[in-house]
Amino acid sequence: MAPEEEEELVRGARAGRREDFEALVRRHHVQVLRLCISLLAVREKGEDAAQEVFLKAYRSLDRFQGDASFSTWLYRIATNHCLDILRKEARRRTESWEELVERDGEALHRLLASPAPSDALEASDLAARVLSHLPEDYRLILTLREAEGLSYQEIAEVLSCSLDSVKARLRRAREALQERLRHFSGPGGV
Amino acid sequence: MENDDILRRKIARALFRPPSVSPSEAFVRRVMAVLPPEEAPLPAAFPFLRWLAPALSLAALTLVLAWPGGAGPLSAEALILADGADERRSAWAFEREEPAAGDLLAFVLEEP
Prior knowledge:
By secondary structure, chain A is mainly α. Chain A has helices at 3-14, 18-40, 43-59, 70-92, 97-113, 121-131, 136-147, 152-159, 163-185.
């Protein structure tokens, strides 16, 4: 879709034309769904969050300035919404890192040693539990980079920060995660 | 110790797998179904209705808040203890609530 066409749809949606907003949802829902599912790690939660994101976007169309692209603006709403959910979940988390290691240390070692990504539900659940021990902003920036494949520039636009800040945050997030997982990545595992 | 770059790639592969998501008309319909209903457009001949109702409400609220409010009637004890400067208020209070003979007698008996 050409940028002019998208601008026209945004103008139409702001003027109250629901069919224009529907075209925007159809155009962007895969990206938003993927980001929400990646961040929240559970498909159903991700789908509910993505629906909320579009509802928030519809209610905030008047505030869309057009300084960034519509997709970047949607990404911002999605990241903020998912961060809120992750923070609430972190407050409710009951499993400590030590408990996770004791219960699933071997599985974690196998997950990291596997040459191909596993689609098994257990692997996905374990990955989500490991990531839940990271600060939410680290988890967000790592997901944007590693799962979504966004460039540093794109991440800077989504998070409304500088390129240097993106690099620094990514480095800290990677160090924090590597520190936790270093013991599980070697040949001997735990 | 393992090279950090290899470890980084291992972690990314294991923990950050992009989920498979395909276009879904069902999702689009679900989103459209939860959008708030369209507002009925106001007749073009009366565009001032958009601001008239809130303006009138605000004016009414301002009047209510600015109106001098009267205090309620004073109690018999408060009137007896008062120095009698506010005669208008005492008169108003007694108009509505005459002290009973027993109340006055009790007051006299309590005097030292």
